[in-house]
Amino acid sequence: MDYETPQFFRVMQYAARAERDVVDMVSGNPDWEPPAALREGLAEYADGEVSDFQYPPSVGLTPLRDEIAERRGVDRSRVLVTNGAGEANHLAMTSALDRGEGDEVIMTDPVYPYYAGRANLLNAESTYVPVDETGQVDPAAVREATTDDTAAIVVNSPNNPTGAVYPPETIESLVEIAEDHDAVLVSDEVYDHFDYTGDFESALATDSDHVVATNSFSKSMAITGFRVGYAVFPDEDGPLGELVERARTRHMIQNVAGSRPAQYAVLRALRETPPEYYERSRERLRERIDRFTDALDAAGAEYTTPGGSFYVMARFDGFPGTMENVERLIDEAGVAGMPGEAFGESRADWLRFALVTPRVDEAAERLADYLG
Fold this sequence. Notes:
The protein has 372 residues and is of the alpha/beta class. It is built from twelve helices and 13 strands. It has helices at residues 7-16, 36-46, 62-72, 84-98, 113-121, 139-145, 168-180, 242-255, 260-272, 275-298, 323-333, 360-371; strands spanning 23-24, 79-82, 104-109, 125-130, 150-156, 184-188, 211-216, 229-232, 302-303, 311-315, 335-336, 338-339, 351-354. A hairpin with a 7-residue loop joins strand 9 and strand 10. It starts with 6 loop residues before the first helix and ends with a helix. The mean pLDDT is 95.
């Protein structure tokens, strides 16, 4: 797949120009309230000293890195705070390729398109491994695709767009493959708070020197505009210790530092937000998934039931997931989704819908009326 132009923006811009009301099911922007402690942290920050309005440490606020390190069971030196998970993934992939041990990046199909876009940007050789009908990736297929020219294996669990949650044994096998080929497993875990199966386990649990785990508070705290993410790199004293130093340098050159007030507010929210906040978010999404898939049943559609994240893929007979059909849905049904072809070849006939809107029922009715 050649992903040169971000299709998300094309769909959103087309929907914005529509002459009718359109339900946005394109973007993964949560529609619920952030933690109360986050708002309180921002207000507190606004009344701070002048010195608090200056550059933070380039690698991130020390107390925030401490908090992340404690939660992830790693040393603080391995944690780099980034401008969202997007930068964390970019730094991880770039650092893996910079080692010079190979120029190939292995990804799944379907794939979150920005991984593919980064591989293109970095002039990497891209190899795609199709997942099965449930969205699960077969480690044996990944092993068959992996060579000594493989620099990185990029996986995302819980997954966007399929909603699959990879069980611990799959992650362990993928880590073993990375180790056997001296590659880096880049594990994007941004939807870790949205696991409905109980199967999710971070790749950090393998305690491997060949893992970079990336994450963000954008989804879990409903703050996509804050751009606070992080990456956990291998120990700098280990065999792949150069990864974290390269990432710190590149991060500083590109950004100098991240947003200090955003990091400050996230830190307070991390410390003070009870588990019930995250459970309410999961329950809200479970209910939306049930209602949306019930409506897809009524429309005679084939669909995925996500074990995690908040996306549903659907296939309607005679209505493949092309950009042209997405535009038809906007114009004629008033629902904006993503074309399956934007995620790769294996789900080109499908459409992807984000359930982060209170208008899920309305959207489902529109789809059923139009395509049922």
